[in-house]
């Protein structure tokens, strides 16, 4: 049986249309899911929408709709984005689904029955926008307006509330981080979380009575669940919790939650504490990526500097956008979103490096070998060196992807692409046609085989372009996974190849629409 791999995106708030920041988190998960599938894993990749809470209730009122109709519309936007971005999710969770409500209520009951929930009053500074309470120390009084560190307005509230006994989890959480050094990544984020937990934890208010749009607390319907307890549960809803099905036993605990750094505390502190409190296993790893900024500020709807993924894809195409997002900024760091950088990557990496390599090699093969894979003669040490560098890629790229260092994995692949281009220049196969036809065949065979490696390995990042590349090499669809990256699976000399077509055309500035009066 194949090993399993369970990966999740955060579930997205449905208070507005998706932007590039949302697309980014899901893209990273999609890349990871595709990589693992190609590497022989039985993958489950889950995404979805977070549909409860006061923010959504307010947004639906503003749109003059009931919350359910409102969330149906906005959730659809996230579904459409997933289709447009080519995401390969196996499940799409909506927190308003019956299966999820049952899961969240079951988790609540486990926590309550294990003695981790009690009823009290909560008085504090609450931000509707951030859906969280802030401590006295965090709140600033600016001319009578109380403001949280995020810039959100907070208001004083005192309400009956259920509490989770988070303050009792400090030692257990620290022991858990110690025993599981890979649980939080990158390293800097892990240190941040450990510092936060060492600073002491306060019990967490986990129910609300001041609005209705949420999952009712079992046996006390005046309360709805705190949206984060509700939302985090989606990760186990997707594996059939509270039923212990084969899905649950195969996929839980999740291998990886990829999230943005703004929601790390919820995933790395609250979530493992909730799960341990309920007697369930915490996930294996949480990776917090950085933010995309525009004009130096986090891209967000509230700031009003959003970048629309749909427009980007329309302009540049899907694969170049996927490549840019995964290549330009180290995963884990913040990055400035710059359209000229997309064009730069398209020109230098995609057209000049990979596009040019394929174009040169395949057109020479078509012209000189009647569109068949050339029959190689004896390989020289230089041919063997290039093939060996392609052959060595899988281990290195796997190591980087397993650490979510996607940019580093790509750097390695592009190093081999550049090496292959230099090999073309050095061996000038076009000049061998008359002088040494067999040598020409060997050089071109070495190159098509190198391209096969590159195309197989780049599939998680640029699935459509790589499918075209592999079609051009006549690699059957069932021979495109990583176990085919072995010398015994090499391209068969003499195989017929289709007519070469350009895969990464040069970027051309779109011409403006002419005004003809
Ligand atoms: N609903 C919660 C998550 C609950 S998970 C149990 C939430 N939703 S969100 O829609 O606000 O954000 C979802 C993801 O988008 C987060 O990982 C967040 O970091 C990411 N991004 C939102 N804006 C972003 C950028 N400008 N840049 C990169 N990612 C950002 O939080």
UniProtKB/TrEMBL annotation:
Residues 373-505 form the Methionyl-tRNA synthetase anticodon-binding domain. A motif ('KMSKS' region) lies at residues 298-302. Its EC number is 6.1.1.10. Monomer. Belongs to the class-I aminoacyl-tRNA synthetase family. MetG type 2B subfamily. HAMAP family: Met_tRNA_synth_type2 (MF_01228). This is Methionine--tRNA ligase. It comes from Candidatus Endolissoclinum faulkneri L2. The lineage of its organism: Bacteria, Pseudomonadati, Pseudomonadota, Alphaproteobacteria, Rhodospirillales.
């Amino acid at each position: 049986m194949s090993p399993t791999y369970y990966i999740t995106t955060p579930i997205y708030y449905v208070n507005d249309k998706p932007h590039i920041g949302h697309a980014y988190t899901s893209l990273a998960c999609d890349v990871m899911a595709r990589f693992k599938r190609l590497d022989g894993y039985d993958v489950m990749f889950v995404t979805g929408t977070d549909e409860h809470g006061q923010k959504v209730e307010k947004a639906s009122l503003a749109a003059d709709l009931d919350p359910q109709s409102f969330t149906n519309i906005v959730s659809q936007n996230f579904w459409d984005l997933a289709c447009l971005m080519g995401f390969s999710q196996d499940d799409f969770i909506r927190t308003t689904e019956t299966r999820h409500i049952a899961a969240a209520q079951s988790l609540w009951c486990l926590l309550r029955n294990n003695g981790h929930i009690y009823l009290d009053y909560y008085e504090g500074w609450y931000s509707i926008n951030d859906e969280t309470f802030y401590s006295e120390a965090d709140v600033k009084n600016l001319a009578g307006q109380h403001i949280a560190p995020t810039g959100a307005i907070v208001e004083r509230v005192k309400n009956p509330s259920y509490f989770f006994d988070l303050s009792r989890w400090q030692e257990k959480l620290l022991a858990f981080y110690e025993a599981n050094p890979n649980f939080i990544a990158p390293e800097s984020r892990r240190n941040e979380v450990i510092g936060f937990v060492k600073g002491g934890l306060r019990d967490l208010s986990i129910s609300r009575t001041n609005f209705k749009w949420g999952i009712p607390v079992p046996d006390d319907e005046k309360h709805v669940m705190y949206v984060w307890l509700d939302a985090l549960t989606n990760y186990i809803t997707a594996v059939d919790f509270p039923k212990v099905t084969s899905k649950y036993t195969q996929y839980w605990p999740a291998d990886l939650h990829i999230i943005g750094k703004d929601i790390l505390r919820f995933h790395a502190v609250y979530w493992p504490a909730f799960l341990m409190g309920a007697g369930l296993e915490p996930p294996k790893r949480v990776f917090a990526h950085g933010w995309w900024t525009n004009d130096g500020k986090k891209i967000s709807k509230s700031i009003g500097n959003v970048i629309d993924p749909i427009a980007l894809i329309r302009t540049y195409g899907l694969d170049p956008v996927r490549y840019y997002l995964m290549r330009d900024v180290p995963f884990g760091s913040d990055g400035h979103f710059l359209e000229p950088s997309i064009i730069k990557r398209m020109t230098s990496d995609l057209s000049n490096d990979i596009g040019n390599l394929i174009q040169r090699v395949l057109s020479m093969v078509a012209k000189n070998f009647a569109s068949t894979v050339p029959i190689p003669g004896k390989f020289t040490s230089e041919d063997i060196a290039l093939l060996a560098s392609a052959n060595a890629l899988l281990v290195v790229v796997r190591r980087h992807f397993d650490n979510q260092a996607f940019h580093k994995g790509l750097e390695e692949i592009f190093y081999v692409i550049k090496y292959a281009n230099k090999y073309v220049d050095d061996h000038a196969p076009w000049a061998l046609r008359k002088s040494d036809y067999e040598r020409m065949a060997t050089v071109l065979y070495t190159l098509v085989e190198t391209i096969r490696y590159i195309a197989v390995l780049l599939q998680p990042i640029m699935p459509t372009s790589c499918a075209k590349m592999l079609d051009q090499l006549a690699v059957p669809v069932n021979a495109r996974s990583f176990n085919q990256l072995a010398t015994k699976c090499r391209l068969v000399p003499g195989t017929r190849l289709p007519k070469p077509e350009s895969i990464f055309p040069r970027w051309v500035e779109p011409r403006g629409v002419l005004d003809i009066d």
